[in-house]
Amino acid sequence: MEFQSPSSTPPEALEAACPREVFEIFCREIAEDGKELLFDHGAPFFSISNTDVLRLVHEWELKGLVAEWKENFGSFDYHSKKFIEIDQDGMSKRYVGVPGMNSICKALCNETGVESKFGVGVGRLEWLDNENSWLVMGMDGQNHGSFKGVVASDKSIFSSRFKDVTGSPPPLDLSLVPELAMKLQDIPVNPCFALMLAFTEPLSLIPVKGFSFKNSEILSWAHCDSSKPGRSTTSERWVLHSTSKYARDIISQTGLRKPSAATLTKVAEDVLEEFKSTGLNGSQPFFRKVHRCVDFVVSTGGCLSRGSAFPAASVAGEEKCLWDDKKKLGICGDFCVSPNVEGAILSGLAAAAKLIDAPSCL
């Protein structure tokens, strides 16, 4: 979330109530022997078609923040237990962050004029009518100041599901922005579980480094995380994504709150057993851990969105973001354009342009 201070031109960045946009796509784990393991358990890669976004990506590439992932990808049919497609042509470039998928966000947080605050939850956004500004309150009730403009990129800030998870109302009361509220009510999402695995030896029966599944009730996608540029190769690390249907069935039984250890164990066993039954893996992982992405969707071709908010709808149309000119409130994210990294970037650029063009904010 970005806030525009009334007293200075440079924007001040403050993490939203659920700061998953930056961090949930990348995690650091420790194995039983003390070995550090790094995983991208959200988006395995991203592809770009828009020229403006491609220009940005090339800048990031020159800075060493992203690199092309030059590996083969495919599709596996669970019924026949065979690969039915293997893409060796690399018709569209696949990019990854280096050394992790959060590298771009971390770099943006260190840009000149940006003040980043981590570990700070936004509990409430209150509109001060007499000051034409937003009062930002923390989850603990702490006053973080008033701001002339706000851009929110995490839909948890206004989602009714926020209360299901935290027990508290969402930070942004949509009745403050009735024109936007109509478009933001109950954005449909697709949940997913991600199983992170580490092996001592390569899974040599798999001829590709990333592939989608067809005809599996449990698995939708798998990728070899350690094959990406800039990653450690001391172990072979794979990430398996469940189908939305499987995740939805589990969540319907357990609710949206943090899954219990028993639930996570069951999910890990189900997903790993499905993977083993493909015949592609005869090895036992020395590390495994499940992560639940409540809002998650796989888009066409196996290209996944960012690791946190994965919508099943686009709400902003040609505008690419939602903007309330009177209150200088912007809503952006992949759910505004398309469920992938490119959609998120396009939406962010559109919201930034609105903020810059607002005279009272700069």
The residue fraction in helices comes out at 10-25%
Strand residue percentage: 25-35%
Instruction: Look at the helices and sheets and give the structural class.
Output: alpha+beta
Q: What sort of overall outline do the alpha carbons produce when their principal axes are compared?
A: globular
Summarize the biggest pleated sheet.
7 strands, mixed
Alpha plus pi helix count: 8
Tally of DSSP β-strands: 20
**pLDDT averaged residue by residue:** 84
Q: How far is the first residue's CA from the last residue's CA?
A: 17 Å
Assembly state (oligomeric): single chain
Radius of gyration: 21 Å
H/E element order:
EEHEEHEEEEHEEEEEHHEEEEHHEEEH
Give the low-confidence spans.
6-24, 295-309
How are the strands ordered across the major sheet?
Answer: 7-6-15-16-17-14-18
Q: Quick recap of the structure?
A:
By secondary structure, the chain is α+β, with helices and mostly antiparallel strands. It is built from 8 helices and 20 strands.
